[in-house]
Amino acid sequence: MEALDLEELAVSWLNELLYLLEVEGAVFYSSALCVTKDPVTLTAEGVLVSGMFRRISVKAATYGEILLRSEPEPFLRIYLDL
Amino acid sequence: MRSFIERLDDTRILLHPGVVPGMRVPGMIFADRYIESMLDADNTLLQIANVATLPGILGYSFGMPDIHWGYGFPIGGVAAFDLDDGIISPGGVGYDISCGVRLLASRISAEDMLCTVDKLLPALFSAIPSGAISGGGRKLSYKELEKVLENGARWAVKNGFGTEKDLEHTEENGCLQGALPGAVSERAKERGATQLGTLGSGNHFLEIQVVDEIFSTVDASRMGLAVGCATVMIHCGSRGLGHQVCDDALKTMRRKMGRYGICVPDQQLCCAPFRSEEGQEYLGAMRAAANFAMANRQLIADSVRQVFERFFPREHLHTVRDISHNLAHIEKHRWEGRDRIVCVHRKGATRAFSGQPVLIPGSMGTASHVLLGTRLAEERTFGSTCHGAGRMMSRNEAVKKFDGGDLLRALSEKGIIVMAETGRTLGEEAAEAYKDVASVVEVVHRTGLSRKVAKLRPIAVMKG
């Protein structure tokens, strides 16, 4: 995935997973994740898991009060609209 | 924060500019002291202040008495924007575009309903797909879906899912004009293709109720409501299709905002000038999603009728009203002495024009209310009122605090039967996680934003 900035990348990635869950019924265990800053890209690999996992319905990952920082340690806060 | 708050009277609080830099108008919150005591618990007041910074906002950034923290805009927030200088914001409508409520009324007595409800509820549960599993609804071809997006509940009635009478009692006669199906992304259409006629999960529900109390005999009679008679309330929205429309627009506007010189204090408030290409595209897509939501409630109402017919073949369920509480409408209002066409964003708030029925669902196990819009609402809040009880506890917090099994037993002792997809939903939706809906309704009644017409007592609840 490509994005304007890291915030958009994080929100878009989560929304991509929600889309795959809703349309394909696909749930993944993430096995590898690579994020680059310039250009802003995310490459992910995952293992497709079968079974019923949809106990919580998530409408979307939001930008509301999103917080992303690298210091003192990497931290990302994203609110999900349930 | 406290130094910016001024209580004007028993039900109104003014939030003076200065809470955040760039507030163009004050905030106005309709709250008694009980509701005010909950405003400090989260960043709700800050969110009202943030909305007040948006370009072209008119009058006030409003908070209805059911207000609580949301994403960007607070839930229970209302803001009107000038069409020339103002903006349109997907966050001001929310993800569940045209989430709303339909009320069906009958002449079935409470006694007859109580004898039948233990068979009726499972039949409804089996007929109406619900829960986090997204599909299960009517499968639509691409062409059919485009027609739904363009024509809303009218498409449903035309295809045999209801009557013209239903449309007469649906907001905008069941179809928002100016919908642009072409502005709805393929991804959104893909999500909606199997979801028409489904309830969803979260706070969505279908409830069998009994009219418990009438406050205005004339108005209740006009709506076909009589004490002791059964009603059905449906609460749901535009499902994944609406969520995707919102998400798509947020991404676009967040990228383009800088070009228009717009800076927002919270990224979820991202927006575009109303008359811009992005603004108009979102307006068209939002209207299409709203049409999907109205068609969705129309199909569910039709399924409810089919199930009722098996148990009460001589009875008919008529639509009292179908309203949205997450929408942006273009409306004419008299403001500061002159008529203006404005874009009113209502997120968790209901249009309450004079004489229009307003439906206020309670939290699980508590009463719902039917109100009537007033001229005062038109003068003071761009014709807006509250939409429900309003959360006071997050879903996560509620799940940790309340056990689904315990709640089922407690509701059963009160004579309310519940069917839900998961116990987690029950915990999330515990009545204690919400404000007291009667207090919320009392505030809008006392303020004159709406008038009480009837109170509806739940006897059976179906949750997604």
Write up what this structure looks like.
- The complex is a heterodimer of chains A (82) and B (464).
- Chain A has a two-stranded antiparallel ribbon.
- In chain A, a hairpin with a 5-residue loop joins β4 and β5.
- Chain A is α+β, with helices and mostly antiparallel strands and 82 residues long.
- Helix content of chain B is 34%, strand content 26%.
- The model of chain B has no long low-confidence stretch (mean pLDDT 94).
- In chain B, the strands form 4 sheets. In chain B, strands 7, 8, 9, 11, 15, 16, 18 and 19 form an 8-stranded mixed β-sheet that branches. Chain B has a 7-stranded mixed β-sheet with strand order 1-2-3-4-5-13-12, sandwiched between helices.
- Chain B contains 15 helices and 19 strands.
- Chain B has 464 residues and is α+β, with helices and mostly antiparallel strands.
- At the A-B interface, α1 of A face α7 and α9 of B.
List keywords for this structure.
heterodimer, A: alpha+beta, 23% helix, B: alpha+beta, tRNA-splicing ligase RtcB, seven-stranded mixed sheet, 15 helices, 19 strands
Provide a quick synopsis of the model.
The complex is a heterodimer of chains A (82) and B (464). By secondary structure, chain A is an alpha+beta fold.
Secondary structure topology:
The complex is a heterodimer of chains A (82) and B (464).
Chain A lengths: L5 H19 L2 E11 L2 E10 L10 E2 L5 E3 L5 E3 L2 E2 L1
Antiparallel strand pairs in A: 1-2, 3-6, 4-5
Chain B lengths: L4 E3 L4 E4 L11 E4 L2 H4 L7 H8 L5 E12 L6 E8 L4 E2 L11 E10 H18 L14 H10 L1 H6 L5 H5 L17 H7 L12 E10 L2 H7 L5 E8 L2 H18 L15 E2 L3 H35 L6 E7 L1 E10 L2 E10 L2 E2 L5 E4 L7 E6 L1 H6 L3 E2 L9 H7 L2 H10 L3 E4 L2 H6 L8 H11 L2 E14 L1
Radius of gyration of chain A: 14 Å
Order of helices and strands of chain A: HEEEEEE
The oligomerization state is heterodimer
**Terminal-residue CA separation of chain A:** 24 Å
Overall 3D shape of chain A: globular
CATH architecture of chain B: Alpha-Beta Complex
Please, what is the CATH homologous superfamily of chain B?
tRNA-splicing ligase RtcB
Q: What is the share of helical residues of chain B? A: 25-40%
Question: What ranges of chain B have pLDDT less than 50 throughout 5 or more consecutive residues?
Answer: none
Estimated share of beta-strand residues of chain A: 35-45%
Ends distance of chain B: 39 Å
Q: Return the structural class of chain A.
A: alpha+beta
Strand order in space, largest sheet of chain A: 1-2
Strand-pairing-aware structural class of chain B: alpha+beta
